[in-house]
Amino acid sequence: MHTRPISRRAGAFDSSGIRKVFDLAARLEDPINLSIGQPDFEMPAAARAAAKDAIDAGRNGYTPTQGIAALRERLESQVRAELGQPQRSLCVTSGSSGALNLALMSLVDPGDEVIVFEPAFVMYRPLVEFLGGRCVAIDTAPTFQVDVDRVAAAITPATKAILLNTPANPTGVVATADTVAALARLADSRGVTIISDELYRAYCYDGPFASPAAHSENVVVIDGLSKSHAMTGWRVGWVHGPKPVVDACTMLQQYTFVCAPQVGQWAGLAALDAPMEAPLAECRRKRDMLMAALRGRYRFVEPGGAFYLYPEAPGGSGKAFAERAVDEEKLLVVPGSVFGAADTHFRIAYTVSDATLGRGIAALTRLARGT
Ligand SMILES: Cc1ncc(COP(=O)(O)O)c(C=O)c1O
Q1: 101 lines ligand 1 (CB under 6 A)
Q2: Does residue 37's CB lie within 6 angstroms of at least one atom of ligand 1?
Q3: What pLDDT shows up at residue 26?
Q4: Which option is the CATH number for 60-271: 3.40.640.10, 3.50.50.60, 3.40.30.10, 3.30.360.10?
Q5: Measuring from atom 16 of ligand 1, which residue has the nearest CA?
Q6: Ligand 1 centre and the CA of 230: distance in Å?
Q7: 72 contacts 58 by C-beta, under 8 angstroms
Q8: Sequence spans of domains, the chain
Q9: CB 232 near ligand 1, within 6 Å
Q10: In the prediction, which pLDDT does 9 show?
Q11: Which atom of ligand 1 lies closest to the CA of 100?
Q12: Which pLDDT belongs to residue 23?
């Protein structure tokens, strides 16, 4: 009998706090679920049709490691049209999570430091630490904007990468054009690689999206179709950046994910031609509706993107507030403690029907009164 079957590395982690909220949701009858970070609209009809066609045409096997040529070439020309930089390479991955895994595996050695901005997407710290790297967290509260001077001060000889996420999960905050330009200049001058997680770039409500990759060929970009085209289950993402990094990602994909699911890739290719203005406008409308209802009742930074609102928790503790929300209102939100060291806020995902959002707003209004 094994006394210790689980590796020390795996044993060091706990289940994601968001999963715990999902488990709670499964046990509650008719909860108001504002905890799920995925779009509530359907993936484009043309993408659904392309998926069915691909299955029926027998396109069910492995694909080349770096993705089917038609999708890769389409994405490459999109990136070239936006950034120039003809030497940039691209690899299609198994979701943007796959891209994040591969990019970090390609860059991080044991002992390396990776700068992350907290609150941060739940996957960043475990991935870095699994590789033996060390996360150096910069707390962005209360504005949730990146302070480039603080980043400069946090860089040491051990710093390998900076993980930037804009528009951000969980705050919805979009980094300004000046910030991303300054961050790109800083990273280049100090020989540090920016990994720019741009999964929510389609969700920029108040101005154009700004990428640090527009200012440096060295930026490694993580992107995908999960959020922009409501394809979370199809696992289609990609990484683009300097050839040596993307070559390393491609090589590592051979030994891990093998390839992105083939049917998802054909669906993704069709999705790229679909007009997405209407569902994105709906998301913006819901953001505005939620902000209007909570203004004066909760304190929050107005989110310019993604589909989250990140208010301060009445009473000061995100955890205590999330528990109260479940107990008193069957309302599910995610406590800020899931996204970093601070437990001062909570996350609302507003990609739900108007009816659910209305119930959520009513519950949040009562909860604010009760403190
Ligand atoms: C910031 C961020 N990056 C990456 C991901 C991973 O998305 P996927 O693997 O579905 O592309 C998510 C999902 O919630 C996210 O919020």
Answers
A1: no
A2: yes
A3: 79
A4: 3.40.640.10
A5: 169
A6: 12
A7: no
A8: 8-43+276-369, 60-271
A9: yes
A10: 86
A11: 4
A12: 75
Picking from 351, 241, 358, 356, the residue whose alpha carbon sits closest to that of residue 294 is 358
Evaluate whether 199 touches 222 at the Cβ level (below 8 Å): yes
pLDDT of residue 14: 78
223 ligand 1 Cβ < 6 A: no
Q: Is the CB of 97 under 6 A from ligand 1?
A: yes
Find the Cα–Cα–Cα–Cα dihedral 182, 184, 190, 196, rounded to 10°. 130
Q: Which residues of the chain have pLDDT under 70?
A: 1-2, 16-19, 371
Q: Which CATH architecture group holds 8-43+276-369?
A: Alpha-Beta Complex (3.90)
